[in-house]
Design goal:
It holds the Pfam family SpoU_methylase. GO terms for molecular function: RNA binding; RNA methyltransferase activity. This is RNA methyltransferase. Keywords: Methyltransferase, Transferase. By secondary structure, the chain is α/β, with parallel strands linked by helices. It has two domains: 103 residues, 60s Ribosomal Protein L30, Chain: A (2-Layer Sandwich); 155 residues, SPOUT methyltransferase, trefoil knot domain (Alpha/beta knot), CATH 3.40.1280.10. 34% of the residues lie in helices and 20% in strands. The chain is built from eleven helices and twelve strands. The chain has a seven-stranded parallel sheet. Strands 1-4-3-5-2 form a five-stranded mixed sheet.
């Protein structure tokens, strides 16, 4: 391995890891710079297994064996090693999972490529909370949907918190960005998808009823906390579906709702 022990935080190779807790900074630098940050050996391994290319690793000394195992096929990737206090000074938080990797972002697939063989997809409209995005990806992976499509203003699934909350499943589940609804709606319909918007509405049908006869190809549309789905999304939907609730509770957190809906509407072989 190409090991460098950190003595100077101004080293150019450490710039990818600087001030990781500064959300505004990372939203600009990571996508524009063509990278994302993977945290923990498990998540880094999933990224590598998905075919993503590492740019460098940042680790504590005791994680050297893990770094060697992870980079067995990447011997020329730089590995920066530092004491916990030094790494915290660099990143802005305690690196208790022991390892970070700066990864090159893979190119996004065209929407049509993800739709070709899919039967269940999830569409995230303008969900800006990275924790919710990561949790939804974990539900998608665990409950068997084929892909996730996100709208132009949705949070980045490869942001560090999303990757961590998803347990790395954002690196396994195929995803890409949708165009605006005026373009996306006919594209989805042309591919044979029935669009089901999860929302509260007077014309909504219950999830139980909708699950009795699920369309063969289904797109489940989920919206942001608070604002919910836009009028454009609701207008695009073929059906509005709601989860029946009790005790005066009108809705669930969007990540929880995604799990309930995905289980109820899963493909049954």
């Amino acid at each position: 391995m190409q090991i460098t022990r950190i003595t100077d935080l101004s080293s150019a190779g450490l710039a990818d890891y600087s001030r990781l807790t500064d959300v505004a900074l990372r939203r600009v630098l990571e996508p524009a710079g063509g990278l994302y940050i993977a945290e923990s050996p498990k998540v880094i391994a999933r990224a590598l297994n998905a075919g993503h290319r590492p740019r460098s690793l940042l680790i504590q000394e005791q994680w050297m064996a893990d770094a060697e195992r992870l980079l067995v096929d990447w011997p020329d990737v730089p590995v920066y090693v530092g004491e916990p206090g030094v790494l915290e000074q660099l990143t802005g938080y305690n690196l208790h999972r022991g390892a970070l990797a700066a990864m090159h972002r893979p190119a996004l697939e065209p929407v049509e490529a993800l739709l070709t063989n899919a039967r269940r997809i999830v569409i995230l409209e303008d969900i800006v909370d990275h924790t919710n995005v990561g949790a939804i990806f974990r539900s998608v992976a665990g409950l068997g949907a084929d892909a996730v499509l996100i709208t132009p203003r949705c949070a980045d699934p490869l942001y560090r918190r999303s990757v961590r909350v998803s347990m790395g499943t954002v690196l396994q589940v195929p995803w890409t960005r949708l165009p605006e609804w005026s373009v996306a709606t006919p594209l989805l319909h042309a591919a044979g998808f029935h669009l089901a918007a999860l929302a509260l509405a007077d014309n909504a049908v219950s999830l139980d009823m909708f699950a009795e006869a699920v369309p063969e190809r289904l797109a489940i549309i989920l919206g942001a906390e608070g604002d919910g789905l836009s009028q454009h999304a609701l207008a695009a939907a073929d059906t509005v579906v709601t989860i029946p609730m009790l005790h005066g509770v009108d809705s669930l957190n969007v990540a929880s709702a995604s799990a309930v809906a995905l289980y109820a509407l899963r493909v049954r072989s």
